[in-house]
Design a protein that fits this description.
Layout lengths: L14 H24 L11 H24 L13
Length: 86
Amino acid sequence: MANAAKSNTAPQESNRERFRRLAEKRTTDTLAAIRKIGDLANKGRYEYGPEDVRAIREAVVGELDKATAALDAGKQSNGPAFKLGD
């Protein structure tokens, strides 16, 4: 009995299919991360002020604006890590 060679016959993912798969996964992960930021709202467990809230909002909205602008332009967007001031 001869061994049949295994062939890689799985259909190749199109660029559109790959985009949809990755976009859905990354968007779901991003929404979960944003919800985790909302979990910081418990003032009984955390100490923060309006300047912290403003800095977080500006960072998140700013990155979202950059990412959507990059998608519109067809260019990759990268930026530094977020840090709160003291």
